[in-house]
Amino acid sequence: MFDAVESLTLDLLEWIANGERSYDEVMDAWRTSCPRFPVWEDANDRGLVAKQLVDGRIVVKVTPSGLALLEQRNPPPRSRAM
Predict the structure, then answer these.
(1) What CA–CA distances, in Å, run from 82 to 19, 53, 68, 76, 79?
(2) pLDDT per residue as tens, the chain (82 positions)
(3) 3-state secondary structure of 50
(4) Predicted pLDDT at 1
C-alpha cells in the first residue's frame, strides 16, 4: 500500500519530469519543515532527483532511478494491435 510520502514523492517526480524546474522553484513548492512529509529530502536521499548547473543556474532533474520509479508506478499504456 502507498503511504502519503511515497504518493507525494511520485507527484514531485512527475512535476519535475514535465518541465525544467529551477532549484528555487522546487524549494518554493516542495520544501517543508514537517517531519511527517519530507518529500524533497526523501527524493534526494533515494537518488531520485539531482541538481545540475545549466546555463549558470541550478535546475533539478529526475534521475534515471526516479524515471524508473515513475514508470514502475505508472506504466505506459499498451498499444493494441489492429
Answers:
(1) 33, 46, 29, 18, 9
(2) 357 778 889 999 999 999 889 999 998 888 777 776 688 888 999 999 999 999 999 999 999 999 999 998 876 666 555 5
(3) strand
(4) 38
Which of 59, 54, 78, 75 shows the shortest CA–CA distance to 10? 75
Determine how many CB atoms are found less than 10 A away from the CB of residue 25: 15
Residue showing cell 533515494: 46
CB 49 within 8 A of CB 65: no
Provide the total of helices (H) and of strands (E) in the chain, helices listed first: 4, 3
Q: Where are the alpha helices (DSSP H) in the chain?
A: 4-17, 23-30, 39-45, 64-73
How far apart, in whole angstroms, are the C-alpha atoms of residue 42 and residue 35? 11
